Structure formats: structure tokens, C-alpha cells
Amino acid sequence: MPDLRESIKSGIVTMMREAAFNVPRDVKEALQRAYEIEDNPVAKANLEAILRNIEVSGKTKLPMCQDTGTPTFFIELGEDFPLKSELRPLIEEAVRIATGEIPLRPNAVDPWTYKNSGDNTGRYVPIIHLELVPGSEMKVIYLAKGGGSENTSKLYMLSPVLGLKGIKRAVIDAMVDAGPKPCPPIVVGVGVGGSADMALKLAKKATFRRLDEPNPDPKLAEIEQEMLEKINSLGLGPMGLGGKTYALGVKIEWAHKHPASLPVGINTQCWAFRRSEAVFDSNGNMKLLVPP
Amino acid sequence: MAEYRLKTPVSEEDVRKLKVGDIVYLDGIIITGRDQVHRRALELAAKGEKDKVPVDLEGMALYHCGPIVKKIDDEWKIFGFGPTTSARMESVEADFIREFKVRLIIGKGGMFEKTTQGMKEYGAAYLAYPGGTSAVATSAVKRVVDVHWLDLGTPEAMWVVEVENFGPTMVAIDSHGNNLYTDVLSKAKKVAEEIKAKF
Ligand code: SF4
Asked: Which of B23, B124, B134, B193 could potentially form a cystine with B119 if both were Cys, beta carbons 3.0 to 4.6 Å apart?
């Protein structure tokens, strides 16, 4: 039987490789639809280039985008999964291997000296969000998050009296502020409540829900749809050069909050949505769920 | 809206024809330059030592790009050739155009008032390359002709690259004072105020 640690390590490398040359199917389909409904020639040319890029990257194994992102992991760890505290060093090693093999651009820089670690690891990097859940499996979501679209993410600590109106206004403000910067079309994640840090984490997590999967709460599903239409009616379009589609989807996650606070986190995710998802069983066998 | 296929170097006349919304494909030589290339070249110009800039930039296309490169058997190969954010070069680009007479600036995310004025005055245009589409850009590369100022590090160095059918790029700032980014954004701001008032 292959060694558990080795299986997990090579599984993580595979996840990173899959994400480097692919975008999830729902994202591709949404971009295709955006292309079909577009009649602005500049927007159409942008979308055509994006669709062609996805195809070329998949075929030639040239990186989708030259910014190969910050390696980020969201992990649901079953309490009976045989590995726990060894997980971080194992993932770090996988990131080092993937960075050399794929290859990825080294993106981990010391904020004081600006020295690049050279292998995408460093203090708190890869970024790992870990949650303990029942069971013996481990579910991993890997995201290669580009700097351009992370830079336009926002936190609004609103006054609670503003309520839903305030949240909607914040979303619109964030889009106008982002403009062409996050390489639109983007997916917009909105995290409401919790705390400052929680709202931003929920916003990022929200972007992982499939674009064709509405919010399970019908009231929130309606708000997501309304905000998507309003954002696109701004006319910013692909790459902020005008057109029908600036956002491919708006996704909301939420948490209870302090009575005196209304945190709203907004995460902007560029079209180059390099994400993979997999489940590992307790023997280390990996089942890749995304990209299909 | 027109579609052009241009070969570098380009003349002022060619550039003056371009209007915002036009689509341009490029052949010939493209030169990369981001933050450090601008800084060093302008420092040399300020000292009256323009001749120390290793490439004649007149009529050339300057690309805001830090490529992913690898040396294989003594030859440089490009694996990533997507655009970087042009806004970082805003404060110096108009001076750069004036000093070196580059005619095309390629990048992503757009540039602002100072550059738009500079382009009008000296005859240059900004071509937007679709952000993130690095694989398509890389497959338009024919070869790396040369590299200068490697001491700045590979992303910041000045790469001289031959391309074929590089694009699509969209004319987002023309030499007549038009800027598609600021037009789109100012309309969006107006619509945003209307939307927000109705919430
Ligand atoms: S925002 Fe996304 S698509 Fe744009 S350069 Fe960054 S990683 Fe690439």
C-alpha cells in the first residue's frame, strides 16, 4: 500500500497542476454565455481572447495567467482522518514541489525586506484555512489567487442602521472602485456579518459555490440575482472597457454578528479562477471533483 | 471600429489613424518595460546619456510585462507573456514617450490623464491586452531576440521579443485625447449613483 503521506502530497501537487491550466466548468460556461450575449465589439474581442486562452492553456500547458497566484487552501478535516498536525508541513512540501515542476511563479515575498522566498512558501504561506468536521475524510479546496483581483477586495464596517441598503450600496461602490483592475469578468463574493476577519473569509469562501447553483436561501438567492443585474448594468464590461458582463455571479455567505457591527467583506475573483477541489479518504486516495 | 495588423516600428501617421475601440494585432519586435526600465531609462535621459539605453525605441511598442522565462540550452524561452498593471507607470509614461518616441504602449487596466495628454501631444496610443490571457500571448512569441538590464531581475529586465499576430489588443487611449477607460468609468459612476439612490 502506498504511503499515506506520499499519496496526500502527490494528490495536492495534482490539484495544483489541474488548477494551473484549467478553470472550473461552470466558469467556462458562464464566460461562453457572456460571449454569446455580447454585442459590443471590444467586449466580444476580450471574451474571445479569454476563451481562447483557456483552451490554449489546457492544450499547451502554458500557465493560464503569468500571475500563478498565492497558494490558498480551504480544508475540511474529518476528525478521524489519520493525519492532523503533520498536514501543514506536508502541504508546504507539495507547494514547493508544484512550484518547481509545473512551474509556478514564486509569489511569496517578505513584506519587510521584499525578499522572495523563491518557492511559494513562507510565514503563513501557503495560506491554510482548516476546519474540523465529523468523519474520516478530508475535503480540500485549492485556490491560486492572483494579486490583481485580491487587491480590489474590500472590507466595509457599516453602521448596523444601514442594513440591507448599506450592504447593497457597499457592493456597488466596491465594483466602481475596482473598475478594470481585477481583470473582469469577475465572480463577486460577499461575506456579511461575523467579524472583520470573518466577513472577508466568508466572502472568499462564497466564490466557491458553483455559478449555476443559487443560494439555498431563496431570499438571498434573490439578492444575489438583483446585485448581479445591477452590477452589470453599470456597463463596465469585460476588462472595464465597456460591455454587458462585468460579473459572472454574485455569491453571498453570512454569519451572525455583534449588535453594534455590520461587517461586509467583498472578494473579487478574476475570470482566471484557478481552483480545484478534491476529497481524500483515510488511505490517502484522492477523488478530484473540480475541475471535472 | 476598425481592425488593423501593424508591424513595428510604426510611424506617427499609423498611430494617428488609430481610434479608441479599434482592434490591433502586432507583428515584429515588442520591448518589455515595467517599473525599473522606466526608472533607469529616464535617469539616463536626465543625465543626457540617452545613447546608453541599449535599444532604439523610436516607433516601438513598449509592453508592460514581466515575462516568465527559463534558459534552456543557452536560449531564453518565454512561458508567461501576459500584461501587468499599467497604472504603476502613470507618473512617468508621458515623459518616457516624449524622450524615446515610443508609439505604442501595451498593458492592462489603463492609464490616466497625464498619459492621455502625452499621447495626444507626442503621437502614441495605448493598447489594452486582455488581462490574464498569458497563454495566448505566449503562443504569439516567435523568439527572444535579446535581453538587456538583466541585473534588474528577469521580470524587470528589458526583453526584446519577436511576435507574430500578437493580440487582440484594443485601442483604449488614442492620440486624439480619447480614453475608453475613463469614459466607461465615468458613465459607470453616474449609473452607480442612480442605482444606489433607489436601494
Ligand atoms: S487578476 Fe487574475 S487574470 Fe488578472 S493578472 Fe491577476 S491573476 Fe491574472
From this structure: B124
